[in-house]
């Protein structure tokens, strides 16, 4: 058996690292929970109420971190499997961030291409920058089929009917006005070819509005694995096939 000449250990395999969604939110949630628990030990008149509030807030923090680090990844694996990709599609991911959905899609496209667009806001995802996305693609072994661009979802730099699938994971709601959010959905439909699939995951009130705006599609709750602290911030999937 051959040995490394300098006797150094073999390099550890690299794994994609996707960061934390809206990192300020769980930080504030956890801090508030901790503060309530500490106050419960000092404030006798409402000790039980403070302790309960602290426990709920800390539990919500744990649920949030599980979703952003593990739960959403497993759910997107399932949903991309359900999409029935044949491997040669061209897929666009809106608000790709550090590539959680983009890279999972690229794994299923050995003869295709996965393109991600983002404005790279660190408020929406920790460490959000194109270099991090490309590093994750390389770590996952799919760099040859992944492309990222800096682009606004409301003005996509692509021709009509140029993608077989368009995805978006909890990104469109970050656009500040409803008019602009609807424009992003319209842009997604514009670049999608007839017969192509639109797959959007967003908070349930938003997903319902997107479906109403385009007048088609099915809505399905994604369950506790996609809760951001609790069911009040649960995520719904909008799926539709563009009519010819």
UniProtKB/TrEMBL annotation:
It comes from the Bacteria. The chain crosses the membrane at residues 20-43, 49-69. Residues 92-200 form the Methyltransferase type domain. GO terms for biological process: methylation. Keywords: Membrane, Methyltransferase, Transferase, Transmembrane, Transmembrane helix. One of its GO terms (molecular function) is S-adenosylmethionine-dependent methyltransferase activity. Gene3D superfamilies: Vaccinia Virus protein VP39. This is SAM-dependent methyltransferase. CDD domains: AdoMet_MTases. The lineage of its organism: Bacteria, Bacillati, Actinomycetota, Actinomycetes, Kitasatosporales. InterPro entries: Methyltransf_11, SAM-dependent_MTases_sf.
């Amino acid at each position: 058996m051959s040995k490394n000449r300098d006797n150094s250990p073999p390099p550890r395999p690299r794994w994609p690292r996707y960061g934390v969604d809206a990192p300020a939110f769980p930080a504030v949630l956890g801090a508030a929970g901790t503060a309530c628990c500490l106050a419960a030990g000092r404030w006798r008149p409402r000790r039980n109420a403070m302790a309960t509030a602290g426990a709920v807030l800390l539990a919500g923090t744990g649920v949030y971190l599980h979703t952003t680090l593990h739960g959403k990844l497993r759910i997107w694996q399932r949903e991309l499997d359900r999409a029935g990709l044949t491997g040669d599609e061209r897929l666009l991911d809106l608000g790709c961030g550090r590539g959680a959905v983009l890279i999972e899609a690229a794994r299923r496209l050995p003869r295709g291409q996965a393109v991600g667009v983002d404005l790279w806001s660190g408020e929406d995802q920790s460490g959000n920058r194109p270099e991090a996305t490309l590093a994750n693609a390389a770590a996952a072994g799919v760099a040859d089929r992944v492309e990222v661009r800096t682009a606004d979802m409301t003005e996509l730099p692509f021709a009509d009917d140029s993608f077989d699938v368009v995805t978006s994971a909890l990104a469109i709601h970050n656009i500040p006005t409803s008019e602009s959010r609807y424009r992003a959905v319209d842009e997604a439909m514009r670049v999608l070819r007839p017969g192509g699939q639109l797959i959007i995951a967003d908070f349930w009130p938003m997903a319902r509005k997107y479906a109403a705006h385009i007048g088609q599609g099915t809505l399905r709750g994604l369950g506790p694995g996609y809760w951001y602290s609790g069911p009040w911030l649960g995520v719904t999937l909008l799926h539709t096939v563009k009519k010819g």
